[in-house]
Amino acid sequence: MASKSKILFIGGTGYIGKFIVEASAKAGHPTYVLIRESTLSNPAKGKLVDNFKSLGVTLVHGDVHDNESLVKVIKEVDVVISTLGRALLGDQTKIIAAIKEAGNVKRFFPSEFGNDVDRAHTVEPAKTAFGIKAGIRRAIEAEGIPYTYVSSNFFAGYFLRNLSQPGATAPPREKVVILGDGNVKAIFNKEEDIGTYTIRAVDDPRTLNKILYLRPAGNIYSFNELVSLWEKKIGKTLERVYVPEEQVLKNIAEASPPVNVILAIGHSVRERRSYQLRD
Q1: CB 3.0–4.6 Å: which of 135, 162, 173, 214 could bond 168 by disulfide?
Q2: pLDDT in tens, the chain (279 residues)
Q3: Alpha-helix residue ranges (DSSP H) falling in the chain
């Protein structure tokens, strides 16, 4: 039986990164996380780092801006997965350069895990982030680096914990604000499942140089359907306030981060098929 690929994570202590790191370790992959000294000394990250250690994850001190150390660690692994956050997406050009110099990586997963940026239509500020991600794709392809792009759409734990109500810490029990008419369907995937299927793709030849779409049929809902499910659960009918597109665009322009980003992503939602691979 072939040994499992060694995986290096860059941005592994971030929101989606931690789920994929854990999935990697639990699947038996030798798992490495590039980590900065500032992260190790951050009390907010202490519990997460301890969990990684308990799972057998190897912590490697380094930074994407230190090319020499980055190339050195990349030479020790087979696969690199970037889960860098929005503010650091452009720094992935440094990862691409290091992978190219190392010359041994058999697969690179750039930081995506959302909409397919080559198909999405959105407005600022999400438009800029999507543009950076698309640029990273083109840079990977230009260098001939083997890749897989994971399109997992909405994070269920992040967007459904408050039914996408900006500023709320729990789902509403009186009134719910709905963008548009609420009938456009979207895909919501549990973060743990995104981790599981990303790791399954690592050694799957079918996903090489492909876009991997995670779109289970049972995870596709319109916002109206989600609200109805919540109403059934709490035994109460909510007041539904529908916001027309013109007002949504106005709200995006006037909102501050991260609310403006969340609203812009919500504005870009389109229904697509449940699962597919595309060249």
Answers
A1: 162
A2: 568 999 999 999 999 999 999 999 999 999 999 998 888 888 889 999 999 999 999 999 999 999 999 999 999 999 999 999 999 999 999 999 999 999 999 999 999 999 999 988 888 988 999 999 999 999 999 999 999 999 999 999 999 999 999 889 999 999 999 999 999 999 999 999 999 999 999 999 999 999 999 999 999 999 999 999 999 999 999 999 999 989 989 989 998 888 888 888 888 864 333 333 344
A3: 17-26, 37-40, 43-54, 67-74, 92-102, 126-142, 156-159, 191-202, 223-234, 245-254, 259-267
Of 45, 133, 190, 236, the active-site residue reads 133
CA dist 22 and 17 (Å) reads 9
pTM: 0.91
For strands 185-189 and 107-109, give the pairing. unpaired
Query: What distance in Å separates the CA atoms of residue 78 and residue 69, rounded to the nearest whole number?
Result: 16
133 in active site: yes
Q: Are 140 and 110 in contact (CB under 8 A)?
A: yes
- Token couple for 64: 């994407």
Pick from 239, 148, 154, 163: nearest CA to 199: 148
Q: Please give the DSSP secondary-structure letter assigned to residue 89.
A: G
DSSP string spanning 207-238? GTTEEEE---GGGEEEHHHHHHHHHHHHT-PP
DSSP character at residue 206 = G
Which DSSP string do the residues of 56-82 spell out, in sequence order? Answer: TPEEEE--TT-HHHHHHHHTT-SEEEE
Can you tell me the distance from the alpha carbon of 190 to that of 177, in angstroms, rounded to the nearest whole number? 23
Cα–Cα distance measured from residue 184 to residue 167, given in angstroms and rounded to the nearest whole number: 23
Tokens of 72: 């050195």
